[in-house]
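Worked example

This section walks through a single chain of length 357. The input is the sequence exactly as stored; nothing has been trimmed or padded.
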Amino acid sequence: MSENILSKSTVDHRPIKIALVGCGNVARKHIAAIEALQGALRVVGTVDPDADARQRASQMLDAPGFDDLNDLLSSRPTDLVALATPTGFHPEQAVAAAEAGADVLTEKPLGTCLNTAHSMVQRISELERRLFVVKQLRHHPLFRAVRRAVRRGRFGRLHTIGLQIFWTRPQSYYDEAHWRGTRDLDGGALMNQASHYVDLLDWMFGPVAEVHAIGGALARQIEAEDTAVVSLCWEQGFIGSLHVTMLAYPRNVATSLTVVGELGTVRIGGPLCDRIEAWHFETPKPEDDRIEELALQVPRVLRRGHEEVYRNVVADLRGDDASVVNGHQGLRSLAIIDAAYRALEMGTVVDVPAAFR
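Given that input, the structure is written out below as tokens.
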């Protein structure tokens, strides 16, 4: 096993040695982020069992390719392993990287099984390694503005929240890879496509206490769900819903967020949740005049979302203050999704375990 040589005293004087594991579609965003931080990161290898995908990534990053993670870890000293692999592989790969002495940055969600993901987080903590989770939507300017308004009490008492994700994933999308739409490796619309937004519901509004859900594979031939409606009750007593489908025709229709409180109502819509449809508060503030300007920034911020995540990870590893999402925080949204899946199976209201709120 390689020995991690990254420390607070040495990292400022050399690039962080990073390995990219998984060279499929989402890896392109990682590659662009790594290239944007060339002075701070040095790629020591790429890993993918698909030779063509591995070769493309290796050429772009000018690094050797490996078909197995353990081969890379045993031969290339590595500070940080970035996982862009199917969700079901994350726990085993993250623990292997940490046991080899590397910190880990993983795509969302942490895993497809809450208990397995929890064990992963605990093991990496025992090894005194860092675990980061990609949650780039936390940098979305309008979501951040809503969160600030909540924190400052501008809504007063929250009443209800609605989040809609009406996207499309044709059958051909699932047929492209054997793991897509499977319960063990990918999950469905909730676990995969809506995962970031479940995280936002917790990050923006606080802990969710219980959920109820209906849904299933209505039109796609997959193991997991292509459509679901989840009712949520937060610890503070307000309620809401998450409605997600991959069946919109012929393309993604919209992502929308509505927040209703006693002193304010906000609705954000549009394909990127970048259109202000309502922004009303009892007491106006100067920042309200800049909300349309923030909306214009959304496409640019989302294009560079992974780059922002990487910048914060690099800063954190160098001992600077940074906005990062760690493994324990990543478990919170996974616990909500896990409760929703149990509610789907049981047909009843399910509590989100207090340990993950």
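What to look for: The longest helix spans residues 327-346.
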